[in-house]
Design goal:
about 260 residues, alpha/beta, nine-stranded parallel beta sheet, about 45% helix
Amino acid sequence: MSNISKAFENGKTFIGFVTAGDPDIQTSEKIMLKMAQAGCDLIEIGIPFSDPIAEGPVIQEANLRSLSQGTTTDKVFELTKKVSQQTDIPLVFMTYLNVLFKYGYDNFLEKAKDAGISGVIIPDMPYEEKDELQSVAVNYGIDVISLIAPTSEDRIKMIASDAKGFIYTVSSLGVTGARKEITTDLNTITKHIRKVTNIPVAIGFGINTPEQAKEYSSLADGVIVGSAIVEIVGKYGKNAPDKVYDYVKSMKDAMR
């Protein structure tokens, strides 16, 4: 069992995402530590990948910036280990199945555990293939996080019933990115999930304002914000850490 539950122990949970190595490894470390200081309860660390199919333009560009700096998965492991030694909030990897295939599940998960990782989110892994990875991950105390999309419908019970860590509820169809309006009936989806599991539920994809953070955290146990943070990093580069701190603090304050 991982320590992800710690993130949900003190009120509504703010989960922030950042692409490792954007704009560079050293600044990434500073950004993540500033996120923790600002009240982030859990950090999703994106491992840059050449074909991030779940991502919109903002995070796609972050992946390219990171890769152009020479970021490798091994360097992300090293970066994450440094961060985990300086903060006690849970850290999870967001990456794609090809990265794990390249390493082999055992090798990747062993390195992830050593780096202080508590969970992995693999958006291109079908639910039907989850057990293949989870059966290995459990040996390292790492949770494979389940995603539930608006189209999951009858699959909600099946996916939620054996979820680990927390459930990532996708707010909208399509790729990641800030949205002015989210029209999905997230209240109903969250109620369906809670009928079959006590695992915490966090809503992501599109949330980018304090008002949205307050609204959607009232429906679930927390919210996930990625593109809005990555956009700040893209805009300010090496000067992003303090800007990210201010943004994360405003989001977390709105949820208190």
